């Protein structure tokens, strides 16, 4: 049974299991990086994170991944129509750094 589809930079991965699985920490880190390097739009990342959180509402998800999804959901919000993003690139970089620290991957 197809549980859900996940898109990662245009590649569709079909997950064939009975319950939802959270994105890997590598996938989450890739979304932060994609925002900062222009690889994905903030809107795309927001939709991905929001969809993941809705799918995983009753699933077991590690605290660090759930925190990061919460940061990425709403990443496209602006301060009024046509205004600047509520969260600038410096804040996104700060969240990426914190995510890496929480994952224990800071070199």
From TrEMBL:
It comes from the Bacteria. This is Uncharacterized protein.
């Amino acid at each position: 049974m197809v549980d859900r589809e996940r898109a990662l930079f245009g590649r569709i991965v079909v997950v064939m299991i009975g319950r939802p699985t959270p994105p890997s920490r590598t996938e989450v880190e890739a979304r932060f990086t994609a925002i900062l390097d222009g690889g994905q739009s903030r809107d795309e990342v927001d939709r991905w994170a929001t969809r993941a959180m809705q799918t995983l509402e009753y699933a077991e998800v590690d605290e660090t991944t759930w925190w990061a999804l919460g940061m990425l959901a709403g990443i496209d919000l602006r301060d009024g129509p046509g205004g600047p993003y509520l969260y600038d690139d410096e804040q996104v970089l700060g969240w990426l750094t914190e995510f890496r620290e929480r994952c224990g991957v800071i070199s």
